[in-house]
Amino acid sequence: MRVLMVGSEVAPFAKSGGLGDVLGALPPVLVEAGIETAVVLPRYRRIPLAGLRKVFGDLQIWMSGGYYLADIYQLDLRGVAHYLVDCPPLYDRDNFYGYDDDHVRFGALCRAALEVARHLFRPDVIHCHDWQAGLLPLYLKNFFPGDAAMARIKTVMTIHSLEHRGLFPPSQLAAVGLNSSYWRSDLVEFNGMGSTMKAGIVFADRVTTVSPNYAREIQTAEYGWGLDGLLRARSGALTGLLNGVDYTEWNPETDPHIADIYSAEALEGKRNCKAALLKQFGFPVEEVIDRPLIGVVSRLADQKGFDLLGQVFHEFCAEDITFILLGSGDPRQETMFWHMEEFHKAKVRAYLGFSNALAHQIYAGSDMFLMPSKYEPCGLSQLYALRYGTIPIVRATGGLDDTIDAGTGFKFWGYNGWEMLLAIRSALEVYRNDPAGWQAMVVRAMGQDFSWKQTVQAYRELYRSL
Ligand code: ADP
Ligand code: GLC
Questions:
Q1: Residue 253 covered by a domain
Q2: What is the pLDDT of residues 126-174, one digit of tens each?
Q3: Among all ligands shown, which has an atom nearest to the Cα of 357?
Q4: In this structure, are 309 and 209 located in the same domain?
Q5: Domain span at residue 289?
Q6: Which residue's alpha carbon is at the smallest distance from atom 22 of ligand 1?
Q7: Do 297 and 314 reside in the same domain of the chain?
Q8: What is the CATH number of the domain that holds 192?
Q9: pLDDT of residue 89
Q10: Is there a single domain that holds both residue 429 and residue 458?
Q11: Which residues line ligand 1 (CB under 6 A)?
Q12: Which atom of ligand 2 is nearest to the CA of 377?
């Protein structure tokens, strides 16, 4: 069986969130399970060409009557061929997304991936990830008449987050290579805009998302972003398969980024990690080492629920805690955390940026991990926190509800700051007044197994059924 994955982020090449983790970790595990797997992604500016091998030159990517010229470069990692589409007018830019022509950039990625499927890696299944790969099933089913080999390929569309639906204005239909016959509310038209995510859901043979709970939630108006009706209509083809953790990267027993290694049997190293983290952020270590340390590693986006912290800002900071946040994104949220640090210097530090090493250090050095998401398709951060014995405090939504229980973390349900504060206070109470109970939770958390093993079997069954 041969599977070609297509997506916009693949660790270690490109990552801004969990999509990069999944596309970095799942393919090698599929390979270990005997499924030949390759990945197509853009060659962004920040990915150096050195070390990549050119395997196809001057590929014509046809879009709306003209074409872009691209070279395809290959690099094999952990048994997985990575095909990087080098097309400077589209991808030689500072950021992954956020441009007016994103629909064209990623439409072209889909077309390029189909050329990879014709010339370089002939798959049985093409597995498309999120809106960036949403147009691929449509292109495959409509643009290769008479090509029997292409007609045999099946497609899976995985929704990592429904919020970003790949919207583009009607005037841009031709720019993604489509004529007006596709402008139908049962195809790509969505409330007056075009949607690449919708196209993917309509045309893919199967649709998956990244937790069982989120698969149910997106069929409701509350979480469906206007696509819940379509998802209910396709519910027979929709499943929720929980993401896994790559424990070769996220493991306190071997992690090269952290100050000291540790395990559930020998936890002293975790205290050393806490001390190192506090020191790094300029806290007087001796004075604050016994104070509970709440950590956050997150994209700062509405999804992540930090407006709840804004609601109870003063009460939260009045608690006897230390709070360290690593995050970047929405400028309003960055400003909020900047203020929080400015006015509560004795307790709060915010590092506004992206740092993989620091992320590891926060998972390891914190006592608790806060994730008050408004919605959370799966969430990997809480799973990393568990492995590092850092107790998650989460809103019970999506994958957070599926993965955290009363034995491994603290949950709240209503989306409001006071409920969050109550959950935080419950955690602080156990931490301070029941050290043995806390330690038992830490050990239980570290023993949870969220490896890819089960999910890989489920993907294998899904591919096979196609
Ligand atoms: P999402 O994909 O919605 O951002 P996940 O919990 O699935 O949420 O995955 C987030 C991933 O991104 C984790 O690997 C987390 O450590 C990482 N991450 C998020 N923000 C940062 C940051 N500012 N610096 C480093 N890593 C980050
Ligand atoms: C998205 C979701 C996150 C999920 C990740 C990987 O970014 O927000 O919940 O874990 O994709 O699937």
A1: no
A2: 999 999 999 999 999 999 989 999 999 999 999 999 999 999 999 999 9
A3: 1
A4: no
A5: 268-446
A6: 354
A7: yes
A8: 3.40.50.2000
A9: 97
A10: no
A11: 17-19, 21, 297-299, 326-328, 354-356, 359, 378-381
A12: 9
Q: Which of 15, 328, 380 to mutate to test the pocket of ligand 1 (most atoms within 8 A of CB)?
A: 380
Q: Is residue 252 part of a domain?
A: no
Q: Compute, in angstroms, the gap from residue 125 CA to the centroid of ligand 2.
A: 22
Number of domains in the chain: 2
Ligand 2 atom having least distance to the Cα of 19: 6
Q: How many angstroms is it from 185 CA to the middle of ligand 1?
A: 34
The answer to whether position 156 is within a domain reads: yes
Same domain for 156 and 274: no
Q: Dihedral angle at the C-alpha atoms of 171, 174, 180, 185, nearest 10 degrees?
A: -70
* Domain assignment of residue 162, yes or no: yes
Residue whose Cα lies nearest atom 12 of ligand 2: it is: 160
Residue nearest to atom 7 of ligand 2 (CA): 18
State whether 285 and 392 are in the same domain: yes
313 with 360, same domain: the answer is: yes
Shared domain check, 408 and 316? yes
Q: Are residues 223 and 277 in the same domain?
A: no
The residues, any chain, with a CB within 8 Å of residue 321's CB and separated by 6 or more, are 291, 292, 293, 294, 347, 428
* pLDDT tens-digit profile, the chain (466 residues): 999 999 999 999 999 999 999 999 999 999 999 999 999 999 999 999 999 999 999 999 999 889 999 999 999 999 999 999 999 999 999 999 999 999 999 999 999 999 999 999 999 999 999 999 999 999 999 999 899 999 999 999 999 999 999 999 999 999 999 999 999 999 999 999 999 999 999 999 999 999 999 999 999 999 999 999 999 999 999 999 999 999 999 999 999 999 999 999 999 999 999 999 999 999 999 999 999 999 999 999 999 999 999 999 999 999 999 999 999 999 999 999 999 999 999 999 999 999 999 999 999 999 999 999 999 999 999 999 999 999 999 999 999 999 999 999 999 999 999 999 999 999 999 999 999 999 999 999 999 999 999 899 999 999 999 9
